[in-house]
Structures
1.
Amino acid sequence: MLNFTLRRLTGVSIRNLNQLTPTISSLGQILPRATMSQEAGQYPPIESAMRKALNTELKPVYLEVINESPQHNVPKRSESHFRVFVVSEKFNDLTLIKRHRLVNDTVKNALKEAGFEFMHALSIEAKTPKQWEPEQEPEKSPPCLGGHGK
Amino acid sequence: MNRICQSLRHPRYQILATTAPQSLLTRFLAADAATGAAVDKATMDKLVRTNKVVVFMKGNPQAPRCGFSNAVVQIMRMHGVQYDAHDVLQNESLRQGVKDYTDWPTIPQVFINGEFVGGCDILLQMHQSGDLIEELKKAGIISELLKAEEAKQQDDKAK
């Protein structure tokens, strides 16, 4: 009973975290999903390298790569802030941290090969097919607070 | 739920973060900031053990400079965790040092009992699943959410 209640208490998404206490209202702002315009499946270079590597390495059941750079104080058409939502069998026996490491390393190697530095921010949701509900949307990122630099 | 909200509004829970012991900070700030080199592993080993929970973030808990760092601060606040916070924006050598130490490319980074737990995404998922309460318990920290729930159950029994 306690465990169930705890999970009910702590099973809070970033969307409604602000309902718990006023001190955390800034987390709950739902920001519009920011994606760059694509023409005929063409993606900007960094996003393209990421997608290719993640598809090759993880053979995902579902993959979503969202460029959130427009939500941040960066030049237009920047590719500095990304969110990755990926569902793959490869995560089946991996802990959360190992899943994230796998995604980080895949992206890092792909960008290095393509001659890019690692991006400023990469947010990851890595799920197994069993954990994934197809209608589920990725979490929204919290608002930018102006932290600067690489 | 209301009880939890009220308890978390209590001034006692508003500022739970502290800075690391000054001597240690001064030592690497002076040495590494001067050379521009990343903070070395030995210093990092000490830094991540200055408290049961240590957070490397952008800004400080009173004024986070990044939404992801802010999210970590708020989760810690909800659980009533006392922790040491290090602002990587104040020191480039610390920023690079912690990334090298964990082989993790982004900030914030959270350590519990000297062990790297993850960044904002992992902490949020642990919070959602209830795993964070368990992880804190292993470190000898009882989450305020757990305390509030137990208090509520006691009240219900009394009625």
2.
Amino acid sequence: MMVRHGKTVLFFIGLTLWAAQPVLAAEGKTLQIDGSTTVGPLGDAFAEVFKELHPDVSITVKKTGSGDGAAALIDGRCDIAMMSRFMKDKEFQQAVEKGVFPVAHVIAMDGVCVVVHPSNPVTELRTEQIRDIYMGKITNWKELGGPDMPIVPVSRDTSSGTYESFHSMVMHNEKMAANVEYVNSNPQAHARVRSTPGAIGYVGIGFLDRYVKALKVDGVMPTRSTIAKGIYPVSRPLFLFTNGYPKLGSIIHAFCTFYLTEKGQEIIEAKGFVPVTEY
Amino acid sequence: MTLWRQIKNTLFTALCSGSVLFLAATLMIFLLPMLWKGSKAVFFRKTVEFDKMQKELFKRGHAEDLERRTAQTNQARQEALALLEHFSRGIDTALLSREVRSAYQQLGRHLRYLEVSDDEYARLREQAKDIRDAFLQALETTDKAEAESLLDTVDAQQTNPRFQNSPFEVVFSLSKQYRQILQEIDLSRRPEYAAELDIVKTEMRNLFGPLPGESIPPLPQDRFGATRWDVAQRHLQYLIYQTKWVPSGKDDKRLIPKQIRRDDPEEGIFGKTELAPLFSMVEQNLAAMLQPRPTIYWRYFLDDSTAGHYFGGVGPEVLGTLLLTVLSMCFAVPLGVLSAAYLVEYAAGGITTRIIRTCINTLAGVPSIVYGLFGLAFFVLLAGNPSILSASMTLALLVLPVIIRASEEAIRAVPQSYKEASLALGAGKFRTFLTVTLPAAGPGILTGIILSLSRAAGETAPILFAGAVALGPIPDIGLHLKWLFQPTRALSYGCYDITVGDRLAMQVPHNQFGMVMTLILLVLLLNLAAVLLRWRMSKKLQGL
Amino acid sequence: MTTAGSQSDAAVQFTRPLRLTFRDDLSSTLLSWLVKSFLFVVTFCSVAAVLLIFVFVIRQAAPFFAESRVSPLERLTEFFTSRRWFPEHQAHPEYGILAIIAGSFYVTITSLLIAVPTGLLAAVFLSDIASFRTRQICKPLIEILAAIPSVAYGVFAVMVVAPWLQKNIGFPTGTNALNASLILSVMAMPTIISVAEDALSAVGREIREASYALGATRAETMLRIVIPAAHSGILAAVILGMMRAVGETMVVWMASGNATQIPSPWWDLSQSVRTMTATIAGELGEVPQGTTHFHSLFAIGLVLLIFTFCLNLLSEHFIMQMKKPKR
């Protein structure tokens, strides 16, 4: 009994050592997708439909954030990196140094919508006001014409692409105040705002529903058309990054051009994003 | 004085008992709602849509029976759907715009077919595009005069011979159609109608699946209507009532929600339109339209799920958790039991033993997230990618001290006379341990193993980075052992993800709580097994 | 839960079976030596594991302190004294974890304030008041309380407690220090109860009887005699409970709100805080490997590890003290 267990242990230790080489990455019919939690639902849905079209391909979608998606692509840990921002200079440099040449595919547009609880009478804010809220200069809704209620600013965690978009487009790279709450995903941000009358948060346009109220930013309401046209001040493209342009006809190529098909477009709309092409 | 002392004493006793009662109450406050809400994932009233979903996604159910019920429900729905379609023709310009767009696309194909020259092709396409854009703009505008002048520009091209007898001709008849609509409805209210109609349509889809004439949606979650009666009830509310946020009238400026029936003749947006009968029609006939029946969906624990756990069960999560825990036991149990044997039988005190003991205690005290860090830094970076193997080895380290302590206690509890008898018969020390002590301590060790199984099953932080994913292929277990190097879904991580990380899941709270319930049940069952085992053991010992 | 430290004395008298021939003797001695060293090596795995954990966490944390742009001393000073945690800022990242450490302490201390009195009273009930049968019922109850996975508690905190706090108490946010502390106290209680009960039982029967014989009531006996006598074991219980609370991840991550701030005024538990464990769990998954931010999270892990290690040594010290008078 004991001896057999000992063997099992040895066996598994051996296996671990063997595992030191990434075994699976070398295999052909797998597709590793990694990256942004914003693009993640799209990746999931694409993968789901893809599974029906190509039953022999095993697709893994990991939603670990844009930064990690870039790093994974650079390290060769994934085939496709989903990103809600463009690659940074540093990441590009690292990639090229490692012989990876990132190619961007814009698959959809997304607007970062500023949302509040529906009981909040405020309907419109200027970017400066939003910035002041997140910098802690405005702390009560009554300063903005709302009820006497402390503002609970909710932000995405600092590694997310949504945060970076918001940070550069609204915050102009100013640091946020200490009382800002951090949540780890869009749904969580949505849930926090939904359940908190005094909260303000920001989510992708796919997360607007009856439970939260989107604010006009600089007089522009976030809608599909304002985002697609880029009128809404906080809109951004969503990317897939691949190492070089994928070989035509390969599974990666099929995945990266899936957004052009009608089904892909429908999914993009179903998931609440804005397709880049009109069909 | 004595009285005072007695009061104090009674108070103290009451406090002590109270605190235990408080604990029991806490447990109940926690367990009951979680299990109750979770049980709705298994016990609920299913609708005909549920059977359709099961048939299509999981290939089960009686085809004939389902067909019959589908026919029945379709008949019940027919009137309402027809009403909706008729009404939306006038309001919903998306349909018209889609037809115009498709006509434009077909024109291109038609021209290619005719093999016109490239210059001609480009010119005609350009013209057609102008017409299309004018039409689309006419659809979008809320100013009647503007719309009509735009339609005039469209109609001006009607005489163009190139467009006659081409697929693009449709556009001109559509334009005529739209002119008629313009006469009938109040354009200024149309956006309002359109927005509300959009919601009504969405809710109708949520109730009854894709509307007639719509293509099959690409995502499974949109292919079916309300599969559960409670979900159907919720969507019915959304369908009938419009929530308006209105000033509360008090000074605090906060808005309060106000429910308005959409078909309310005074305030409801559709109150005075021909759509009004729809709402009461659906409200009264919902049961006939969906045919709810109570069901026990025991396959919840085995079924795979669609993305975001919208449909289906927690099968892959359960499997993943089982794989992780069992595999981690494969590492931890031999190590733990042998370590315990050493500590009990051989350890001679002294500095080495003290260091070992300190280390085991340290191991027990290391925060679970640090195990996660270690798992990432050691196993994952070493092996390249997160996998079942790295996650289970991390878990093995985590439960190692638990197993060592439990085994130690069990081995110590074996009566000395057993060992003495064996030793006296001439068996060596190690043989005595293997053949006498270990079997006698077996149930105790097993209890420890079961408890650490439950611990490993519930831990989330260590596997966060070491091999758990929210969505991934089901590991195909086999002798080829490749599955060891795949990441897997797990109940514990799934619970986290479904609570905070998924938008779809927010719409299916029964599945959120269902997953947590599954985890709690699993842990409770393991603990129950441990308690029973211990109880049997103590009875046996008493019997000696 | 207790660390047993006694040795098997009785078996020592029977180590050798009857001696037969020289070869038998030699082989059996060799065999037993082999077995012993094999078992020792196996047991040493635990030690190796602890060492490995330390080594790997330190190895990943080291680049954070040894980065060339800033001197290690500056880094350290910033790390422990600055409240500003902006690891992802492009131009001027800041890595101050003072507020995060403070957050950990907030939830830990508050949860102990609830868990220690309740746990201690429950331990008194179990050791001195309850009948054998009651104890048989209560013990599994407490075990179940301890066995419920932390993520399940976390879901409870987010989906049940947080809305309740918001609606009925009127906090601006339901995920705050108080919510996390409440749940943590429930999680720390089983540890505290079982260790404290051991400590109370370890105080001999004679002492209690002497006290009762002098006419003391049960309250007086427990509060004035038994609890003071068991103080080191109870301290160990508190420390072990504290370790549980400090190291807990999922609950605080889900329930504490994760705002990097020290509440002001300092006693305001309705504000969100962020703990060390939550910072690691929340950020590590999304941060690219090899960046300073990545290493800084390991540095936080190292702080956590060292802290719990010290607590552990302390608790061991107290447990040893508790065991001494018993012998």
